[in-house]
Amino acid sequence: MKEVLLLKCGEIVLKGLNRKTFEDRLLKNLKRRMAHVADCEITMRQSVVYVEIPDDADADAVMECASRVFGFATISRAAVCPEKTLESIIATAKDYLAPNFAAAKTFKVESKRGDKKFPMTSTEISQHVGGELADLFPDVRPDMHHPDLTVHVEMREKYAFVHAGPVPGAGGMPIGSNGRAALLLSGGIDSPVAGWMMAKRGLELCGIHFFSYPYTSERAKEKVLELGRKLTAWCGRMSVMVVPFTHIQEEIRDKCHEELFTLIMRRFMMRIAERVAVEYGCGALITGESLGQVASQTMPAMAVTGAVCDLPVFRPCIGMDKEEIVTIARKIDTFETSILPYEDCCTVFTPKHPNTKPKMPKILEAESHLDVEALVDEAVKGVEIIHLP
Ligand code: ATP
Ligand code: MG
């Protein structure tokens, strides 16, 4: 049986004059992502996108791919009726929805008539199709108020479709519609979630990872790249900039007071991230910080680390509990990778008693023992760019 996906656009339908640009981008994103999965014909009419699934394609994979494209509110997986007649609609519903009828005790039919030339109203269609299906499935009672199964009939321009109702799409806005931002990507649980949340708001991501070889291993780096790959299932291709960070950490260790180590290190991260971000056309930085989670994520600590950059810093996890972050990490399939036990550059020289209420003059005094500009330049020059598909 021929199947299609009917994807309904989300928030972008609200966008007035920009709507066309948004829709074009959404369609382009979907086509690019779908190209890895199957050779589907993809078209858009009246804010509905049609994905025609070829007979030899894996329909579940097509569905999964579509459900990870930001910008769609709902997805209906439907059967195409061979003809636009009531008989054809009933026959299609009988076959295609047989498993749904088998699992239901009650049902109703809901029809939409996009094709106004069809000589019956949507109510008449529902009544007729509902009556016939009630005869075909005598164990399933009609119930107009709380049915287990709602049979949807959509009478569109070219075809009639039958399905068992929409499921939620990925939501959000099309990737790229709000520009590009740089995600500070560690091997932890929080930063991939932060990246996903901002990608959902239409940001294209560019990853930045600080790498402290040999204190952290190649395997730790591979883990971060794997997290990046997992994110590409949602946000499409992405580049990760790997920044050599060892020299900076050694300099801080040798020349600054231990309790300030993490804060000074984080200020370097933000400076370097901003330089790289600007070079690659990013308009903001994204981190996985969550208020109070660790010593460097108190309000005064974030004031000190945020002070070195001019770009806006998005911290979408800031108000979330760890449990809430973990729930998203599981949903987006990064959790299992994040908990692999490889060391992170942040844990390498962690002070025993980190300062949670830093004062700026003390930080500046400590940094005066370092050649900040030269160290930042050196790190930026050493960036290795890795493109993830
Ligand atoms: P995560 O679970 O993402 O590692 P965390 O709770 O461990 O976060 P920190 O280690 O203090 O928190 O880091 C806070 C944020 O700083 C991270 O969410 C990430 O955005 C950034 N960050 C930390 N380490 C790195 C790194 N090695 N490379 C790039 N960004 C990093
Ligand atoms: Mg971390």
UniProtKB/TrEMBL annotation:
UniProt GO MF annotations: ATP binding; CCA tRNA nucleotidyltransferase activity; tRNA binding; tRNA-uracil-4 sulfurtransferase activity
UniProt main location, coarse: cytoplasm
Keyword ATP-binding: yes
A cellular component term, taken from the record's GO annotations: cytosol
Keyword Iron: no
Residues covered by the THUMP domain: 60-166
Catalysed reactions, semicolon-separated: [ThiI sulfur-carrier protein]-S-sulfanyl-L-cysteine + a uridine in tRNA + 2 reduced [2Fe-2S]-[ferredoxin] + ATP + H(+) = [ThiI sulfur-carrier protein]-L-cysteine + a 4-thiouridine in tRNA + 2 oxidized [2Fe-2S]-[ferredoxin] + AMP + diphosphate; [ThiS sulfur-carrier protein]-C-terminal Gly-Gly-AMP + S-sulfanyl-L-cysteinyl-[cysteine desulfurase] + AH2 = [ThiS sulfur-carrier protein]-C-terminal-Gly-aminoethanethioate + L-cysteinyl-[cysteine desulfurase] + A + AMP + 2 H(+)
Gene3D superfamilies per record: 3.30.2130.30, HUPs (3.40.50.620)
Compartments reported by the entry: Cytoplasm
EC number per UniProt: 2.8.1.4
Keywords: ATP-binding, Cytoplasm, Nucleotide-binding, RNA-binding, Thiamine biosynthesis, Transferase, tRNA-binding
Swiss-Prot/TrEMBL GO biological process terms: thiamine biosynthetic process; thiamine diphosphate biosynthetic process; thiazole biosynthetic process; tRNA 4-thiouridine biosynthesis
Transmembrane residue ranges: none
Similarity section: Belongs to the ThiI family.
Protein name: Probable tRNA sulfurtransferase
Function in brief: Catalyzes the ATP-dependent transfer of a sulfur to tRNA to produce 4-thiouridine in position 8 of tRNAs, which functions as a near-UV photosensor. Also catalyzes the transfer of sulfur to the sulfur carrier protein ThiS, forming ThiS-thiocarboxylate. This is a step in the synthesis of thiazole, in the thiamine biosynthesis pathway. The sulfur is donated as persulfide by IscS.
Pathway membership, UniProt: Cofactor biosynthesis; thiamine diphosphate biosynthesis
Binding residues annotated for ATP, in chain numbering: 184-185, 209-210, 266, 288, 297
Enzyme class: transferase
UniProt cross-references to Pfam families, sorted A to Z: ThiI, ThiI_fer, THUMP
InterPro entries: Rossmann-like_a/b/a_fold (IPR014729), ThiI_AANH (IPR020536), ThiI_fer (IPR054173), ThiI_N (IPR049961), THUMP_dom (IPR004114), THUMP_ThiI (IPR049962), tRNA_STrfase (IPR003720), tRNA_sulfurtransferase_ThiI (IPR050102)
CDD domains associated with the record: PPase_ThiI (cd01712), THUMP_ThiI (cd11716)
Superkingdom as given in the UniProt entry: Bacteria
